[in-house]
Every structure is written in structure tokens, then in C-alpha cells.
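Final report, results section. Input specification for complex C-07:
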Amino acid sequence: MTQRKIRVLVAKPGLDGHDRGAKTVASALRDHGMEVIYTGLHQTPEAIAEIAAQEDVDVVGLSILSGAHMALFPRVRVELEKRGMGHVLLTGGGIIPQDDMAALETQGYTKLFGPGTPTEAIAKWITVAMAERLKNEGAQ
Amino acid sequence: MAAAETLAARIERGDRTALARMISWAENGDARFAGELAALWPRVGRAWRVGVTGPPGAGKSTLVNELARVERSRERSVGICAVDPSSPFTGGALLGDRIRMDDRTLDPGVFIRSMASRGSHGGLARAAASACDVLDAFGFATILLETVGVGQAEYDVLDAADTVVVVLCPGAGDGIQAMKAGLLEVADVLVVNKSDLPGAERLQSDLTEAVHVRFTKRAWAVPVVAASAGTAQGTEDVLEAIARHRAHVESSGLEAARRRKRIEQVRHSLSEQLSERLWGPAGLRDRVEVELAQGHSPHAIAAALLAEVTMGLSKLSEARR
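Structure output:
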């Protein structure tokens, strides 16, 4: 009996200690039927990628309010690739200026979500992206 | 790229991403899992599997983290499988056990997998025992299997672990709670965690007494160990109790003990799959609804269905002969 669930890692990289947003998103995704692993605060990019690999997640969401997003997203991406996890859907949110958001999105860090985003929108975006991916997996 | 290499082969050469993927296959009921596990089966059985169970908030994750820390200091590798509950309403789950195992993340001798219970009611996920098999095949010396926070009637861990550790803490009910049927009976080792809190000594003496009153005829005397996992106290004592239990099991017939547990695993897996199969695509639900509307009792409907299933099974065994 197949029951494929979307597995999501919600991670807090770096030094910022505010995780109400991360917890809100984690709970919302759970309420949309996903299995959500939350890392706790102060994770290194290396640790986040290692957890993603051990948990075989489909999605990694980074919550960053420290301003270090331009450094952290690429580093997490590199660490994921090192572990054969390049296929992971990397996304995130927090306090990220519009210009930086656009830059990260064009550099291939997929969609980012700023303050005020309805959690519905995040869940829907993940669901649609994963449905697309599973269709491709099935086609192989 | 060697696309043809199997997961089993990758696991044999220590590929952790393959290990993670194979556990996912077990969780998702992927049809390829059985074949891969069969290939790894000769490597299964070397690890010692310790189940850690107890009520929510007793300190299971913290104790697991502590046990892993001390095992690592003794250069023994540790595989961890930690189960948290799935929502019966949405099917979603928030898996937070590894927050308390943070120090172990980057240790190459440790692998932690969080697992949602996905509708299992026995305190584990259906795939938990399979995940332990895969961790075992990978070569971890000790496997720690943490259940969801349990109440008084979740016993699946009994069939999945070689040693069952039940973690209790003061302030969550008196010794009489513990003497009710249930958790106490599955314990090979009892841990009174948070032993620095008031009431811990009382709980320990209540438990010691309860264990001695109830289980006088058993060959294994269940030890009651005090620990404070949050402050790293008593972990060695817990490991020592586990080691003594292991020695006891090994001297009284390990293979037979494991086979008994495997039989129960097959039985559970069979009954779960059977009810799922019956209830699933065959439209049984609709039929039951119709029969209820016709005024039949649930008991009568179930009895009639059972008769049909039994008939089907006896035809099957005739066909085999």
C-alpha cells in the first residue's frame, strides 16, 4: 500500500534566534498533510544538509531573519549537492529585501516567501511543485 | 553514473543517502523494498536493538541522545529511529525528536531518522521495524528505537526491540498508575528519569516494589534505574542495565527470542494489510453502509464478512494442496 507523503525540513540557519515564523510555517504544513521535521535554532548549512539527507526530505525551507540570506542559501545548496541531495526543492522566507529575493530566485533557489504570506500559499506552492516532480518521477 | 547500482549495494559500501532512501521505500510501501531487503538480509541481526518508550514528556528523546553520546564515547556506532504521531485528521506530522539530538547531527557514526506513525496505533510506525533492519544491515552496533509518547496500551515496541526501556518521570501519576496493566509489563529496564525532581525517590521505590510483586516468577529481574538525562546523570547505569539484559537474553536463547518477535511482526503486518486490503479498493465501506441502512447490526455485518473471508482462505489452502 503506497502512501507517499511530502517530507519537509524547516530549518533555522545561522545566528538569529527568532523561530516563531518557522514554527508557524511548520505547523501549517503539517495541517496540509505533510511530514515536517523542525531542526531547532542555530544550524550550520552543513548540519541542515546532513539532516535533509538522513531524513530523505523532498523540500528544505530556510527561515532567515538575520540578513545573511545571500550567503546561506548558496551554502546550503552546495552542501545538499555534496550529499547527493541536489534534487531537493530549496525554498525559504524571512526578512529578505525584494531585490535579494529576485536575485536568489533567478539564481535558482526557487520561490521565496516574505512576511505576510498566507501559509496556504506556501503549502499550495509546495504541493503543486511536488505533484509536478512526482509526475516526472513516474514517467522515468 | 552507475545508474544500475542497487540500493542494497550502495548500503553495503556505506552510502548514507541510499540508507535514507531505502527507509523511505519502507515507509511508502514501495514494491522495490522487499527485494532490496532480501539482498541485505544476511547482514541483518548483528545490531542490538533498544526500544525506548514512555509517556509524552518523560524524556525519551533526551535519554536517547544521552545513550547515543555515551555509546559514541565507547566507539560504538548508533542508528536512531524516532517516531512521532501523525494527525488522524490531516495525515500530517510534526517531527521534533531530533531537536534534542542536535549534538549528534554531524557525527558520521550516528544516523537519525524521524518517522511519522502514519495511522499505526501501537506506538510505532508500520515501517519502524523495517527501518531498524536497514540500519542493522548498514552496520550500526546499537539501534535506538524511540516510540511516540505512549499511554497505557501501546506495545508494538516489544516485537521490534531486543531490550525495551520504559522511561517514566516523577509528577506524572503515582506508583499505582504504573502498576496498572501495560507499560510495566513490556519493560526490560525501567528508568526513573528527571531523578533530580521531587518525588523521584518515591517513584523509584514504588516501581521497585511493583516490579518485585508482579514478576517474581520471571527469570529476568527488571532493574529500576534512576537517571537525569537532561543533566547527563545515570546514563552509564542505564547502558549497564541494557548490557546485563542483553547478556541474559543471549544466554537464554537469542535466536529463539528474536524468532518469537518476528512471528508477532508477521502477524501484525498481516492483520493490518488484510484489513487495509479488505477496506480499500473493494468498496467494502459502501456495502457496509448499505447493510447498516437495511437495519443490520455492526456485529452481524462483521460476522458475515468474517465468514466470507474465512471461506476465501480455506479455498486458497485447498488450492495449495
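Chain B has a mean pLDDT of 89. Residues 1-41 of chain B form one domain. This concludes the modelling results for the funded period.
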